[in-house]
């Protein structure tokens, strides 16, 4: 027995290692998902109903011209200031809503010349046919950001106690809803609706002029 | 005088290949998971704009519409931005029938929840987008998702 052949390597654990790697990759790879801004279009309405009269002070007009410049409430404004201006307009709370309630959660200036109530505040946006899509998306993004900022603030005020660790309470609520989409959580849905009702998104887009 | 003869005179035994299927399966699974299927090849330039207030998109109920300039190998279609649906260029008037067709192809319980994903090149005119939106209103597909890259907040 001077010369012995090398013993065969035990390959029984190879499958375990393989599965370990497989699970590792399964956990770490993320499939790229498309993301974007969700928006609802108004349905086509043929009925000849006189549109309700909206007071000028409740209307926040944003115009984008063909050179991608912004005209907000008759004044030129750089894109960076749009978010602040929109928040100030929505959060003003200078008067009462249709039910005669004043906005007790608004933290704005309560100026007579700006919006009465978040219920009534409407953002009207119009762009030129030649406006670039990039600028259009940037403006949309800023307007949505203004709403999200205010909703986030109200969610923090009302529901922070349920999400003590969350940095952004409203985002945490939406994520929880997403996670439990197969088991309906009435309470959570109700809370999300409450927040949305405090600052309803009223964003109207006018058709660009045909020329 | 032993009964059992030692064969091979101490040569190395062949490496066991029993685990090869495992490795192959592992790679297979990995690629299965990591690959994103693309069902229509793009014939247009498609640089998405960026936004930071984005929401996730539910793929199962989405119909995609692409728009942008024809890319370099499709120069014969000109320089003007075009609309692409599935694998073909379509005109503005064809958007409505295409969308209705797309909705009909969806799973029945998702048909009422359909979302139209607009993948539009950022250098396109917004006028084209509003044309598409008018057509979508006519087709009564009112939920629109402007697909964008996620911008990191400063």
From TrEMBL, chain A:
<keyword id="KW-1003">Cell membrane</keyword>
<comment type="similarity">
    <text>Belongs to the ExbD/TolR family.</text>
</comment>
<keyword id="KW-0813">Transport</keyword>
<dbReference type="Pfam" id="PF02472">
    <property type="entry name" value="ExbD"/>
</dbReference>
<dbReference type="InterPro" id="IPR003400">
    <property type="entry name" value="ExbD"/>
</dbReference>
<keyword id="KW-0653">Protein transport</keyword>
<keyword id="KW-0472">Membrane</keyword>
<keyword id="KW-0812">Transmembrane</keyword>
<keyword id="KW-1133">Transmembrane helix</keyword>
<protein>
    <submittedName>
        <fullName>Biopolymer transporter ExbD</fullName>
    </submittedName>
</protein>
<feature type="transmembrane region" description="Helical">
    <location>
        <begin position="12"/>
        <end position="31"/>
    </location>
</feature>
TrEMBL record, chain B:
<dbReference type="Pfam" id="PF02472">
    <property type="entry name" value="ExbD"/>
</dbReference>
<keyword id="KW-1003">Cell membrane</keyword>
<keyword id="KW-0813">Transport</keyword>
<feature type="transmembrane region" description="Helical">
    <location>
        <begin position="12"/>
        <end position="37"/>
    </location>
</feature>
<keyword id="KW-1133">Transmembrane helix</keyword>
<protein>
    <submittedName>
        <fullName>Biopolymer transporter ExbD</fullName>
    </submittedName>
</protein>
<comment type="similarity">
    <text>Belongs to the ExbD/TolR family.</text>
</comment>
<keyword id="KW-0472">Membrane</keyword>
<keyword id="KW-0812">Transmembrane</keyword>
<keyword id="KW-0653">Protein transport</keyword>
<dbReference type="InterPro" id="IPR003400">
    <property type="entry name" value="ExbD"/>
</dbReference>
């Amino acid at each position: 027995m001077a010369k012995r052949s090398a013993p065969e390597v035990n390959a029984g654990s190879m499958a375990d290692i393989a599965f370990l790697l497989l699970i590792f990759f399964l956990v770490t790879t993320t499939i790229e998902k498309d993301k974007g801004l969700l928006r609802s279009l108004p349905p086509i309405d043929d009925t000849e109903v006189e549109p309700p009269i909206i007071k000028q002070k409740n209307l926040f007009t944003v115009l984008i011209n063909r050179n991608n410049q912004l005209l907000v409430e008759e004044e030129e404004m750089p894109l960076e200031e749009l978010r602040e201006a929109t928040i100030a307009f929505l959060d003003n709370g200078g008067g009462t809503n249709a039910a005669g309630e004043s906005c007790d959660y608004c933290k704005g200036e309560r100026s007579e010349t700006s919006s009465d109530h978040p219920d009534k505040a409407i953002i009207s946006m119009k762009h030129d046919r030649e406006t670039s899509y990039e600028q259009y998306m940037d403006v949309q993004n800023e307007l949505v950001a203004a709403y999200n900022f205010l909703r986030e603030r109200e969610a923090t005020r009302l529901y922070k106690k349920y999400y003590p660790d969350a940095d952004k309470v409203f985002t945490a609520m939406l994520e929880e809803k997403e996670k439990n989409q197969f088991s309906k959580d009435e309470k959570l849905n109700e809370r999300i609706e409450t927040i949305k009702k405090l600052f309803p998104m009223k964003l109207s887009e006018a058709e660009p002029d045909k020329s | 005088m032993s009964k059992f003869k030692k064969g091979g005179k101490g040569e190395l035994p062949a490496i066991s290949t029993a685990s090869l299927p495992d490795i192959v399966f592992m790679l297979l699974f990995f690629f299965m998971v990591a690959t994103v299927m693309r069902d229509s090849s793009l014939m247009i330039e498609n640089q998405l704009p960026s936004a930071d207030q984005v929401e996730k998109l539910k793929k199962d109920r989405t119909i995609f519409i692409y728009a942008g300039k024809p890319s370099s190998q499709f120069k014969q279609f000109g320089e003007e931005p075009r609309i692409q649906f599935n694998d073909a260029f379509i005109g503005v008037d064809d958007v409505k029938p295409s969308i209705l067709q797309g909705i009909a192809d969806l799973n029945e319980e998702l048909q009422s929840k359909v979302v139209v994903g607009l993948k539009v090149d950022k250098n396109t005119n917004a006028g084209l987008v509003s044309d598409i939106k008018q057509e979508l209103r006519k087709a009564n597909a009112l939920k629109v998702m402007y697909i964008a890259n996620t911008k990191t907040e400063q």
